[in-house]
TrEMBL record, chain A:
Keyword presence, Cytoplasm: no
Broad enzyme group: oxidoreductase
GO terms classed as biological process: 2-oxoglutarate metabolic process
Protein known as: Dihydrolipoyl dehydrogenase
Keywords in alphabetical order: Disulfide bond, FAD, Flavoprotein, NAD, Nucleotide-binding, Oxidoreductase, Redox-active center
Entry annotated with the keyword Coiled coil: no
Residue stretches making up the FAD/NAD(P)-binding domain: 13-337
Enzyme Commission number(s) from the entry: 1.8.1.4
Any one Gene Ontology molecular-function term assigned to this protein's record: dihydrolipoyl dehydrogenase (NADH) activity
Disulfide bond sites: 50-55
Family: Belongs to the class-I pyridine nucleotide-disulfide oxidoreductase family.
Cofactor: FAD
A Pfam family that the UniProt record links to this protein: Pyr_redox_dim
Automatic annotation (TrEMBL), chain B:
Organism: Ostreobium quekettii
Name of the protein described by the UniProt record: Dihydrolipoamide acetyltransferase component of pyruvate dehydrogenase complex
Matches recorded under Pfam families: 2-oxoacid_dh (PF00198), Biotin_lipoyl (PF00364), E3_binding (PF02817)
Coiled coil: none
EC numbers for this chain: 2.3.1.-
Cofactor: (R)-lipoate
Top enzyme category: transferase
Length: 475, 439
């Protein structure tokens, strides 16, 4: 069911607006399925938020700061004697930038290899069959398209009273470019982005305070894991002000003064910081696309509405990723992209949103898939629960990295895994065994009866599974 | 139904010796289609394989009585109706099948001989470790299936991509599918409790093996269960008369050697088959069985000799039909083929259903003599031992000969001493003088 037609050489089978993880993956997949594809991106580099100012640079800095922390706090115990360990922030940022540039260039190569046309500029939908591009080099061009895929992603949600200048008051973008370790940093928003960025600079020496509107950080996390997680971050020096909101900000003597008060209202106090990070959420980015004129429906928060085929209310216009409902995660956007393109080509594309993992790349890492124990309680679903601490895992003990645990929740009658939650070293890798299991409707007993290498951290996953349907051996 | 035109009812066929039920996986015809002999009407799925349901007669498909994909249809259940004339097809539009009756009018595969005895609710063969090869199934489900002696193929799967999950097996167990607790099943173990309390971890109860005695449980197979019940029925309901006779093997040995020199291999048993066949023809009263319904001995219509073949799944008895009319070499070739296919479980129904007389030969295992159990619904079975060297006196002089003892177990309601003796004497007369078998 190919979509090539004997038409003018200009006409594209698909034009993808946005070259982030959702967009570029969709474009490459479409080309692989035989479609004539153009991807429109105005940033000057492919990879979207993720590669340029999100996932990738943050993981680079997290790793660098983690190494520093290890050197400073743990090397001596391992018998490694250093002198005073210090940080060269410029060098750190350079390493990060090299990683980013390498990857974004890599995507350009992938485009060439798969014959995806790359149009450098900002796209706008004139009608369901035409995308107008304001070219970066100047001028405009109109690309005829049989189908259009919106993959423009998301942007930082601003907070009234705290205007972002990316110098002193930064979003995650600016937080990745801070030139020297701030003495005091306030993070507004206790979600995973704020906590990760807070971790980076906290490890490098900042005094970090997290201000969160709700009574909990990372609201989607299992509450038991979350409590342990917060304790861990506090041990690393992070301070938390929960149920607090920021109402105003002003600059004074090169520092930022924030006015904060309880979320429900009350007396206000002042916080001072060298750098303030605004990380209170993200919202779909669809400015300049011309959606209203074309008639594409979005809800009041700007989230584009799509059906199970990723098609908007306008036939021929599709949307994926952060600008449609669902978790705002790069891997979810990639899954969306592949599924949407497969469906366009008559294949059975499908995204299983129940098995999209969520990972927080602090240290210890936290990873989760499926339902939390709280959700099951709320939904009155009968469940079994099993836990296993890394303190009892041989590998973790051998390398002295024992903070955290693995937790499973499974159906009380069938033992089918309903959720898996891991806090600990490499949680972000360990979770995938659980994701795979859930994809196959596995029970915790299945994981328990699968051989796990020794000595690995994965054995904690096995033992937690055993603890769920039966008993663990090692605790 | 007198208002319906003449039609042929097609029933779920028994496509293997042990098949009790099958699934009609896919229909290859639809109502109104013209069909010829040899057309494959549907794919029938058993727990072992998918086989084609071959049409036997020309006609038109008037009605399909079960949907494609219908599972667990007992053998003998009507599944379709054929008519001779295309105009009659529409007359079956509103036809409703009666309650399933196993009587088959048009199954050429089923003889007039009565059906094999009904076994208590049939379950497909319990799965063994080897059966799981290539199946999408996790270790927890496998363990439960083995413990409860279930068959993985009949457990409804609700897992993604068709997987049988632990929950699916637990459900099947709780519905009593695990009640395969006949004497032949593995040593009983305590079932794992299917539910557990919310915060406690569960205890899996499992009986330990008998102290100090290592053993391996091999789940019994469907074939063995059927054989077991038939043997019991035979032994307890048929009054058997046991009569032995010694046959001379020397002449047969000479003839075999001579045939071998010409490049043809014929076994002693092939000679036995032919001798039995001719003896049955000469002594028709021996080619009979007891019909309980009529309370009388009934003659078998042909001389169809069953040969007992030992296979991994049990003893099977393929039939050489009209053995009296076939030559020795023809019988030899057919016996070999049937035995091979019996071992591969590839016998067609007409190849093992029926027969008038069975021969069971343990000679090659070094057995001198034995008495076999009659193979219902037949009237007699001959147990053949191995050849023994014997010294006897002839005219006062010691002579050596090879003798073979055969023992018949005969239904005494059909065979009295007179018939039994006559039959055996005739048999020996043919066997001792094998030239008679060739002419």
């Amino acid at each position: 069911m190919g979509l090539r037609r004997l038409s003018t050489s200009d006409e594209q089978d698909l034009v993808v607006i946005g070259g982030g993880p959702g967009g570029y993956v969709a474009a490459i997949k479409a080309a692989q399925l035989g479609m004539k594809v153009t991807c429109v991106e105005g940033r000057g580099a492919l990879g979207g938020t993720c590669l340029n100012v999100g996932c990738i640079p943050s993981k680079a800095l997290l790793q660098s700061s983690h190494k520093f922390w290890e050197a400073k706090k743990h090397f001596a115990k391992h018998g490694i004697i250093t002198g005073e360990v210090s940080v060269d922030v410029e060098k750190m940022l350079e390493q990060k930038q090299n990683a980013v540039t390498g990857l974004t260039k890599g995507i350009e190569l992938l485009f060439k290899k798969n014959k995806v046309s790359y149009s450098k500029g900002w796209g706008k939908i004139l009608n369901p069959n035409t995308v107008e591009v304001a070219l970066s080099e100047g001028g405009t061009t109109a690309i005829p398209a049989r189908r259009i895929l919106i993959a423009t992603g998301s942007e930082v949600t601003p907070i009234p009273g705290v205007a972002i200048d990316e110098e002193k008051i930064v979003s995650s973008t600016g937080a990745l470019e801070i030139k020297e370790v701030p003495e005091k940093m306030v993070v507004i928003g206790g979600g995973y982005i704020g906590l990760e960025m807070g971790s980076v600079w906290g490890r490098l020496g900042s005094q970090v305070t997290v201000v969160e509107f709700l009574d909990k950080i990372v609201p989607t996390m299992d509450s038991e894991i979350r409590r342990a997680f917060q304790r861990s971050l506090e041990k690393q020096g992070m301070k938390f002000m929960l149920k607090t909101k920021v109402t105003d900000s002003e600059m004074a003597d090169g520092k930022v003064k924030l006015t904060v008060e309880p979320s429900q209202g009350g007396d206000s106090t002042e916080l001072e910081a060298d750098i303030v990070l605004v990380s209170a959420g993200r919202r779909p980015y669809t400015a300049g696309l011309g959606l209203e004129e074309v008639g594409v429906k979005a809800n009041e928060r700007g989230v584009i509405q799509v059906d199970e085929n990723f098609q908007t209310n306008v036939p021929g216009i599709y949307a994926i990723g952060d600008c449609i409902p669902g978790p705002m995660l790069a891997h979810k956007a990639e899954e969306d992209g592949v599924a949407a393109v497969e469906i366009m080509n008559g294949q059975a594309g499908h995204v299983n949103y129940n098995t999209v993992p969520g990972i927080v790349y602090t240290w210890p890492e936290v990873a989760m898939v499926g339902k939390t124990e709280d959700e099951l309680k709320e939904q009155k679903i009968k469940y079994k629960v099993g836990k296993f601490p890394f303190m009892a895992n041989s590998r973790a003990r051998a390398v002295e990295d024992t903070e955290g645990m693995v937790k499973f929740v499974s159906d009380a009658a069938t033992d089918k895994i309903l959720g898996a939650h891991i806090m600990g070293p490499n949680a972000g890798e360990l979770i995938h065994e659980c994701v795979m299991g859930m994809e196959y409707g596995a029970s915790t007993e299945d994981i328990a009866r699968t051989c796990h290498g020794h000595p690995t951290l994965s054995e904690a996953v096995k033992e937690a599974a055993m603890a769920t349907y039966s008993k663990p051996i090692h605790s | 139904m007198s208002s319906l035109p003449p039609h042929t009812m097609l029933n779920m066929p028994a496509l293997s010796p042990t098949m009790e039920q099958g699934s009609l996986a896919t229909w290859h015809v639809k109502e109104g289609d013209e069909v010829a002999a040899g057309d494959v009407l549907a794919d029938i799925e058993t727990d072992k394989a998918v086989l084609g349901f071959e049409n036997q007669e020309e006609g038109f498909v008037a009605k399909l009585l079960v949907k494609g994909g219908a599972k667990d249809i007992p053998v003998g259940t009507p599944v379709a109706i054929l008519v001779e004339n295309v105009e009659d097809v529409t007359k079956f539009e509103t036809y409703e099948p009666e309650a399933a009756s196993p009587s088959a009018q048009s199954q050429p595969a089923v003889d007039s001989a009565p059906q094999p005895p009904k076994v208590v609710p049939p379950t497909p063969r319990a799965s063994s470790i080897q059966d799981f090869q290539g199946m999408k199934i996790g270790p927890a489900a496998k363990k439960l299936i083995l413990e409860h002696g279930l068959s993985a193929s009949v457990i409804p799967s609700t897992g993604p991509r068709g997987m049988v999950t632990k929950g699916d097996v637990l459900l099947a167990v709780s519905k009593g599918a695990g009640k395969v607790a006949e004497p032949a099943t593995p040593a009983p173990r305590k079932e794992a409790p299917p539910r557990q309390t919310v915060t406690e971890t569960s205890k899996q109860g499992k009986e330990t093996h008998v102290e100090g005695v290592p053993f391996m449980d091999t789940p019994t197979t469907q074939v063995r269960r059927i054989i077991a019940s038939r043997l019991l029925e035979s032994k307890t309901t048929i009054p058997a008369l046991y009569v032995s006779a010694d046959a001379d093997v020397d002449a047969v040995s000479l003839m075999r050697a001579s045939l071998k020199r010409q490049g043809t291999r014929v076994s002693v048993n092939d000679f036995v088959v032919k001798a039995v066949a001719l003896a049955l023809k000469d002594v028709p009263r021996a080619n009979a069985f007891w019909d309980q319904a009529r309370e009388d001995a009934v003659h078998s219509s042909g001389v169809d000799v069953s040969i007992a073949v030992a296979t991994d799944s049990g003893l099977l008895t393929p039939i050489i039909r009209d053995a009296d009319k076939k030559g020795l070499l023809e019988i030899s070739a057919e016996a070999r083929q049937l035995a091979q296919r019996a071992r591969e479980n590839k016998l067609k129904p007409e190849e093992f259903q029926g027969g008038s007389f069975t021969i069971s030969n343990l000679g090659m295992f070094g057995i001198d003599e034995f008495s076999a159990i009659i193979n219902p619904p037949q009237g007699c079975i001959m147990a053949v031992g191995g050849s023994q060297q014997e010294v006897f006196l002839e005219g006062g002089e010691p002579r050596v000969k090879d003798r073979m003892r055969v023992t018949i177990s005969a239904d005494h309601r059909v065979f009295d001493g007179d018939v039994a003796s006559q039959f055996l004497n005739t048999f020996c007369s043919y066997f001792n003088n094998p030239v008679k078998l060739i002419v």
